[in-house]
């Protein structure tokens, strides 16, 4: 068997399109040059519809966690109260970051595999009556469980019940889902490059509402590399970044903008819904239990809790026999689930590939062969969409 072809189905990093690789291989340019100013302004503004913001998007050279840390240090100060919705390992990380900076964090625990309902947030805020909440943090798409939180209705609750900033970790869904920062009441929205934005790891993005921008401008806290005010000022005055950026990745981001525009942003969103629905229909046809309900299902990653064959065994077999890489579970779900990423540079045919490999893998582990069953169901979903 030829194993030099590899298939990446993790929820980040994700496959890189050729156009993006080619753009990243363009000759280097100086980051204090007029060429770079043209480049960064082009990318920062063309990304605006993807983040649903009317302000240019800040591009940091670091991973998503640093942008989340930046979101914390630029808004929440020692002793401030913050609510963090914790529905999985990334919500947990967000809470830890805020705690590390001395915030008093009120964790709203949600059962892993479920979304946070507006009613849960509402009741949690009611219980904190009298506590001045500086910020509410939410994970838009909880990558560890494959849950998409109802960010619009959560934002409405934050807006109606508090004066807090609403800060959203959109790392594993921005570039795949619709978002409108004003309408969703999001003040800071963060993502990283290696997910639905089809880039290698190395860039992090922060988008702002008017209020979010004002908050970072007024922040009295000490910070340096993660100083978003310094970032915004440098961008506005010089169309550059405060420190040396990953120029090649930003060149790649320009190609990503062109790809999203060519496909059409609405079509990108629709494709991710199609990928989700094909994947879920196929997995169900193999009697593989899904971790989430239809209502909570993420359009970018699907988590499966197999009962008859262990998740790590399936993961290993896919790698060994088909060079397919998927992800395992994290923390409490380690060893219990596997996760398939389907975001960014991913097509319906990619879903068929991984489903057919799963059919063969389950048969290899002694299950009654269901050759073609998952592919058939996924194709039926496809046929209804197009
Ligand atoms: N938040 C979410 C929801 C994620 O999925 C990830 C990474 O998988 C992160 C934060 C951390 O981002 P990074 O690994 O780019 O630091």
Automatic annotation (TrEMBL):
<keyword id="KW-0032">Aminotransferase</keyword>
<keyword id="KW-0808">Transferase</keyword>
<keyword id="KW-0663">Pyridoxal phosphate</keyword>
<dbReference type="InterPro" id="IPR015424">
    <property type="entry name" value="PyrdxlP-dep_Trfase"/>
</dbReference>
<protein>
    <submittedName>
        <fullName>Alanine--glyoxylate aminotransferase family protein</fullName>
    </submittedName>
</protein>
<dbReference type="Pfam" id="PF00266">
    <property type="entry name" value="Aminotran_5"/>
</dbReference>
<dbReference type="GO" id="GO:0008483">
    <property type="term" value="F:transaminase activity"/>
</dbReference>
<dbReference type="InterPro" id="IPR020578">
    <property type="entry name" value="Aminotrans_V_PyrdxlP_BS"/>
</dbReference>
<dbReference type="InterPro" id="IPR015422">
    <property type="entry name" value="PyrdxlP-dep_Trfase_small"/>
</dbReference>
<dbReference type="InterPro" id="IPR015421">
    <property type="entry name" value="PyrdxlP-dep_Trfase_major"/>
</dbReference>
<dbReference type="InterPro" id="IPR000192">
    <property type="entry name" value="Aminotrans_V_dom"/>
</dbReference>
<dbReference type="InterPro" id="IPR024169">
    <property type="entry name" value="SP_NH2Trfase/AEP_transaminase"/>
</dbReference>
<comment type="similarity">
    <text>Belongs to the class-V pyridoxal-phosphate-dependent aminotransferase family.</text>
</comment>
<feature type="domain" description="Aminotransferase class V">
    <location>
        <begin position="7"/>
        <end position="331"/>
    </location>
</feature>
